Amino acid sequence: MATISPFPGAQGAETTPVANRPVAPQSEALPRAPRDPRLDFYRGIAMFIILCAHIPGNRWTSWIPARFGFSDATEIFVFCSGMASAIAFGGTFARQGWIMGSARVLFRCWQVFWAHIGLFVFIATSMAALDLYGGFEKSYIASLNLLPLFENPVPQLVGLMTLSYVPNYFDILPMYLVVLGLMPLMMGLERIGFWAVAAASIGIWLLANPYMVGLGPNGISLSAEPWSNREWFFNPFGWQLLFFTGFAFMKGWLPAPPVSRVLIVCAVAYLILLAPFGSWKVFLWVKAWNPDLAQIIRPTWALTSEWREKTDFGLLRYGHFLSLAYLGWVIAGAGGHRLIASGHSTAARIWAVLLSLITKVGQQSLAVFVFSMALARLLGFAMDITDRSIMTTAFFNLAGFGLIIGCAYIAAWFKSHPWKTKR
Fold this sequence. Notes:
By secondary structure, this protein is mainly alpha-helical. It has one domain (8-18, 30-414). It is built from 18 helices and no strands. It is globular and about 60 Å long.
């Protein structure tokens, strides 16, 4: 079976220029690409990090990737989602044509939309129940900035259904939905050539980041609140660049970078040397070690604010994540062979079990993500009524890990349609 790389141009990927590829008849069934094990592994890792990051007041968030550089688990999720979409939806476009491919994307957007609505309603109801029956000093509704919904529900309910009311905690799925909606456009441009896809994606990203071409700070965005000018925390017009980068690598539109010592050194240097410029945690370490150096670095934070911005997906974040992705690809090895446990030692067996669990979570990322966002708020409440000690925090984080693993297996079981008679 052919191997697909996260950067597929070098191994097992189609490298024929897009414009020169023959178009398969719609009736022809093209072989479905095998799923890359590295894709599910790294997306599974992202799911665990996302759970940690969304538990309020969680000590463990001090050690997530976002505390050491520009990019974080959101980048892993979006990039891997682009790769997975190239396998799932790209195959449909190739086998059944643009119309049916677009229809499948539209159906997925429909699923994501209702996942967003269901998540919002469940969490809002849960927080309301805690405020109504708990008698706590803090307001859990206010902690998520949901007071406008409960104080004036009519416009907010309309805004919820039209995605013009998107509170910060609920903005990842709407971003993902809009980015998915751009896929038919990109697949239509593919008929012209990859250069047209790249130009469209980069052009949309530049419109979201106009400072890159000297046009000022305000770019295209979507409103997050009917009563203010606040935009979506994750601007889909900026983040689509990362999604379609992953898509392009998995489709073979972009060639795989070589495994090179020079590139490895450059990637490591980028991550280490720029850490004090993008992480307060690392900056404070530098300040404690060398106050004079910290004094030189400090003014750059204001100068680079747009370049490392999370909302519009600044250029420094893009470079930071690509450096991480390259190192992750090199570490995993061709076909992910370094991830696979070998031998019969206790360590190998433990790693084999962990790899299986992480991979399962990555395979069911949408179900796990929705579940983990709801679970994180409940775990935060559980921590509020305990002492939040190191051991208690560890218990709730590990319990959360166990629950999202269980969610992944349950989702996989339902997707297998076990009630159907096997012949």
